[in-house]
Amino acid sequence: MCVSRVRASVALRSLALLALAATLASCATTAAPVKKKGPDPVHVAMYGPRPDERFPMPAIDISGVNPKYFRQQVAYQTMEPAGTIVIDTQNRFLYLVQGEGMAMRYGIGVGKSGLEFEGVARIGRKAEWPRWTPTPSMIKREPERNLKWANGMEPGLTNPLGPRALYLYKDGQDTLFRIHGTSEPWSIGKAVSSGCIRLFNQDIIDLYGRVPSGSRVVVLQHQAPAEEAMPVAAASDGFVPRADI
């Protein structure tokens, strides 16, 4: 009788072990595969195609872009009034001050011309799908690239200014400093050989729609690292707004 009970117990244990093994095998074969992490869908949509534009724009491949350069609202302490654009060339950020300690931040690329102006200016002109004409210094610096466009380049997807441009004036004079889009999205977050302040094309369209002519622009060239406190930029200037073009 005891032998029968032992045999029955062993059989039950064997069946239990077989059931457990089957369960584990089932879990192993039905587990969902691990998906490779990609860009946030919100950012993918933000930098998606713009077929409604005069020159339909394709989506930007943002897979290799540091997310800190994507358009985003951030905490930002400054004494500049709401509506001011603050350009931090060293950290590659442009801030549109919103007030109450907040700002809309855009990643930027900085060209040589963008490092030649510091201080306060105003947006003296706005242009959609602008023509581009290289300055004499740009032609001299890179004649093989720019000389053929001495009389200007028509608007389009290959135009270095992209779909929008903001022209900065000081004391009523053109500073030759521009905030614009780019045909080279890989340059955002970097210092490049030509141009002024460039944004992703989708970002310059967004910024363009938020700021009117006459808006104040503060350009900082020797800024502390972004994780440190932002110094207060204070300056005065005279300006006579021009009509949008």
Number of helices: 5
Question: Which bin fits the share of residues in helices?
Answer: 10-25%
State the oligomer: single chain
Structural class by secondary-structure content: alpha+beta
Order of secondary-structure elements = HHEEEEEEHHEEEHE
Rg from alpha-carbon coordinates = 28 Å
Average pLDDT taken over every residue: 81
Point out poorly predicted stretches: 228-245
Strand content: 15-25%
Categorize the overall geometry.
globular
Give the neighbour order of strands across the main sheet: 1-4-3-2-10-6-7-8-9-5
Kindly report how far apart the N and C termini lie: 104 Å
Total strand count, please?
A: 10
Biggest pleated sheet:
10 strands, mixed
